[in-house]
Amino acid sequence: MPRALQVLLITAILLFCILVGGFFGIQFSSRFQGNLSGEVFGQQKKMQEVFSIISALYVDKVSDQELVDSGIEGMTEALDPHTTYLKADQVSFSNSEFEGNFEGIGIEFDIVHDTLLVVTPLSGGPSESAGIKAGDRIIAIDTLSAAGLSPMDVINMLRGKKGSVVTLKIYRPYTSRSFTVDIVRDKIPTYSVDAFFMLDDITGYIRVSRFVATTADEFRSAMEKLLDQGMQKLIIDVRGNPGGYLDQAVEIADEFLAEGELIVYTKSRNGGGDEMRYTATSDGIFERREVMVLVDRGSASAAEILAGALQDNGRAKIAGELTFGKGLVQRQFDLEDGSAIRLTIARYFTPSGRRIQRDFSPGSEGREQYYQESHEIRDGKKLFEETGSLQVESDIEGITVFRPSPDLFKNSGGIVPDFWIVEPPVDDFYSSLLTMGVFDETALRVIDDPSNSVRGYNEDVEGFMAAYAEDDKVEQYLREICKEKGIAFNEKFFKQEKENILSAVKSRIARQFFGIDAQIRVLAEESDSMLQFARDYIRRNDDGMRRDAA
């Protein structure tokens, strides 16, 4: 029997247990129970018989729990790509991420070449209180070497019950000092606004990496601080944002929309309580000023809802690429053993009725294809020119910008940007530098070099942003690491893209010394062509501003 079919059969048995015995403790309403036909019960009986045969006669002893888990996974894989089964440990980790808090020591970290780096000690957390700084290296955790640990290994070792203690051995590169510190775990807030700052005297920038339970509050706080600094226009960056809680995207959209304007609505199979309409309330804090939203093919779900709501209501221009196209609504059904099913129950639509969800094929093969697909256009310039799309003048070197014709992607799903930015394809050499960790390792070696000038900036992020440059040293280490990793050094490409490559390394140095906010600032000022286009456009135009503004 094919494994996929076996998995599906076993899954049906689980469903039979749920329905007749309340095995997992889920209470279904009479509306759902009334839809269960005799034919369905008959199929479940068949599955129960097969399960009994496998348990009793299979050549090897099998774990009932593993069969149960595999069975549920098989059934969810037969549906859409976003219906999933989460085991108990996955539920706990996922919930802590999206609820906006967990219990641990409070750091963001990277692993570079088997080196565990502190990116940022979270504000107000126990690591910050214990004196941990951005750029510190964790050598050992409770006497166990940190070399070679996976990200999940680190999470499992550093998170734990509030009040428990973890001992870290730390190396601080800019002082060449090692020390040991005991940190008492506590409840840690997680953050989803990675960075916010002024791009110039009137233009603010906020980057949102996901939508968790605290995102709207974080966003409003960032907005208020930028307004205090004189912000008159705003760029919201949701590139690479996979989504999250719908209500957080709705709350943020509400800050830009007038009372009664539609934000998003859903349609379901059963109607009634599964169909919702979300509209704006009064007193948004940025209803009358210009907004742009940056998106790419990694922007999904709640990020697409925010972009679609502002675009359809004429409140923002969207710049970037066609978004991912994830417009299915999941509801989590918690099971008695701590596991859960996230089941798709409805579809999202933008205020104008556009379908956000792109097409997919059911089943495991369809799911794999769905996630492998990209919205890359082999010859973007040719496509837009042939379809009558308007090319937009831009002073940003290396990119081409189009305003797509309205019908070009009407059935594509996702959010079609007002300004589709076509960047040159990533060169194989640059891709190798990125994927093989050359930029990160170069940053490490520069920081570890006692003769480097970066140590002089220590906590002076403004000075670093304005003045730091060690081009010769960076190039030397780049060449050395490429040789060590067997990467052929492309002299022609390096000469053409030297500024961007040096900026990529500088951004990693900034991240290790000052945190992710500084890394994003370096890229924004030096090499982020999408953001540079948005900044130039929003300064010159008022297209996204309400015409009834006072």
Mind describing the biggest β-sheet? 8 strands, mixed
Regarding quaternary structure, what we see is single chain
- What's the CATH first level of the largest domain? Alpha Beta
Mean pLDDT: 82
Ordered list of secondary-structure elements with their pairings:
Elements: H1 3-21, H2 30-33, H3 38-57, H4 64-77, E1 84-86, H5 88-99, E2 101-104, E3 107-112, E4 115-121, H6 126-129, E5 137-141, E6 144-145, H7 151-158, E7 165-172, E8 177-184, E9 186-189, E10 193-198, E11 203-208, H8 215-228, E12 233-237, H9 246-254, E13 262-268, E14 277-279, E15 291-295, H10 302-312, E16 317-320, E17 328-334, E18 340-349, H11 363-372, H12 380-386, E19 390-392, E20 400-403, E21 419-422, H13 428-435, H14 438-448, H15 461-467, H16 471-485, H17 491-496, H18 498-514, H19 516-526, H20 529-540
Parallel strand pairs: 11-12, 12-15, 15-16, 16-21
Antiparallel strand pairs: 1-18, 2-9, 3-4, 4-5, 5-6, 5-7, 7-8, 10-11, 13-14, 13-18, 17-18, 19-20, 20-21
Provide structural commentary.
There is one protein chain. The protein has 550 residues and is α+β, with helices and mostly antiparallel strands. The longest helix has 20 residues, at 38-57. The protein is built from 20 helices and 21 strands. It is globular and about 80 Å long. An eight-stranded mixed sheet has the order 10-11-12-15-16-21-20-19, sandwiched between helices. A hairpin with an 8-residue loop joins strand 13 (262-268) and strand 14 (277-279). Residues 1-34, 375-379 and 543-550 have low confidence and may be disordered. 38% of the residues are buried. It has four domains: 3-78, no CATH class; 101-189, Pdz3 Domain (Roll); 193-328 and 347-422, 2-enoyl-CoA Hydratase, Chain A, domain 1 (Alpha-Beta Complex), CATH 3.90.226; 428-534, no CATH class.
